[in-house]
Specification:
Strand content: 25-35%
Radius of gyration: 19 Å
Number of helices: 9
Number of strands: 15
Order of helices and strands: HHHEEEHEEEEHEHEEHEEHEEHE
Structural class: alpha+beta
Distance between the termini: 45 Å
Shape: globular
Oligomer: single chain
Largest sheet: 7 strands, mixed
Helix content: 10-25%
Number of domains: 1
């Protein structure tokens, strides 16, 4: 086994993936010795290898690979007092004042639009990857990254889990719940969701770990790793997902800025940063579906983590959500923010 593969497995063990090492060891053993040009999906491989490699002073990764901007995650916010609005309209009064913050988050539900649901018809496997990166280091160390993976495994007929079973707590991939520490109240986060055919090498790993089609399954994650460590993992992850079959992205982005304090929001480098606050439900939609969502959101609300027509009765929530906004793919998200000072 090459030194790079040994480093890959050591990183997995250190990052909380030890229970899944048999499947991952098999995948690592099959990584190619060939050049990127010989792979089925070199563009996706390059995307992952450049993902989170470095951040320049403005707080954005230095990247060169083109990506599908139609699948860029866009954020809406919902709370009972304000209803739906674009997340950048969250007021300063909902943010903490200043200083370091600790963030925890939970994906409440995943619902694909009709066109994206068709991607699962051929028993394709979905993979959600969440990355949250510091932009300011502490005590002279590299900035840290929290990364978590979840898998969506449809049944033999391509049917996805019910909406009530599509929640995902990233902390469960780290062995225990951990807050994400953001020095200065700002960071970068990335949301990527892709599907591949079941015959792909990566999907074989996911299928081994996600042995049930009844719910979204936490796969593995790396808490508080240096950017250099995650970049090393991405080199091999890129090879792994580029084998045999192409990836189809439902959400695709490099990391975008997020701010949790008034002070950070006033910093010019985070001028367009997404404000994150406790007590708000976030709905993430691909840019391709943003107009359709915006046209309908005034007649909808969030109940039990899913989008339903306004006035839906509690016992009808998941049935109503199944039929609501059929032309919109979304993830719903709850965030908790507290001072770390």
């Amino acid at each position: 086994m090459s030194s790079s593969r040994r480093d890959f497995l050591s990183l997995l063990a250190a990052g909380g993936a030890a229970p899944f090492l048999p499947a991952l060891r098999l995948a690592a053993a099959q990584l190619p010795q060939s050049s990127p040009q010989s792979l089925a999906d070199p563009k996706t491989m390059q995307f992952w290898q450049e993902h989170l490699v470095a951040a320049h002073p403005g707080g954005r990764p230095q990247v060169t690979t083109a990506k599908d901007d139609n699948r860029h995650p866009e954020f809406a916010a919902f709370d009972k007092d304000n209803g739906f609005r674009i997340a950048t309209q969250i007021r300063d009064t909902q943010l903490l004042d200043r200083g370091d913050v600790a963030v925890s988050l939970r994906v409440l539900a995943f619902k694909p639009a009709a066109e994206d649901l068709a991607e699962f018809a051929n028993i394709q496997t979905g993979s959600l990857r969440v990355d949250f990166q510091q932009t300011r280091a502490q005590s002279g160390h590299d900035p840290l990254v929290w990364t978590a993976f979840a898998g969506v495994q449809p049944d033999a007929k391509g049917k996805l889990p019910g909406l009530q079973n599509t929640s995902f707590n990233p902390g469960t991939t780290w062995g225990q719940q951990q807050d994400i520490l953001l020095p200065g109240g700002a960071g970068l986060w990335g949301w990527n969701f892709f599907v591949q055919k079941k015959e792909s090498l990566w999907c074989q790993v996911v299928a081994h770990l996600a042995s049930t089609a009844d719910k979204v399954v936490p796969l593995f994650g790396f808490p508080a790793l240096a950017i250099s460590g995650v970049a090393g993992f991405n080199q091999l992850f890129g090879f792994l997902v580029a084998q045999s079959h192409k990836s189809k992205f439902l959400f695709q982005t490099f990391s975008d800025p997020a701010v949790a304090t008034k002070d950070a929001r006033q910093d010019a480098q985070y001028a367009d940063g997404l404000p994150i606050a406790s007590g708000v439900h976030y709905i993430i939609v691909p840019r391709k579906h943003l107009q359709a969502f915006g046209e309908q959101m005034g007649k909808h609300e969030v109940m039990s983590g899913v989008v339903v027509p306004s006035g839906t009765k509690p016992h009808e929530v998941f049935e109503a959500a199944r039929d609501a906004m059929k032309d919109v793919t979304y993830l719903s998200l709850a965030v908790s923010v507290k001072s770390a000072g």
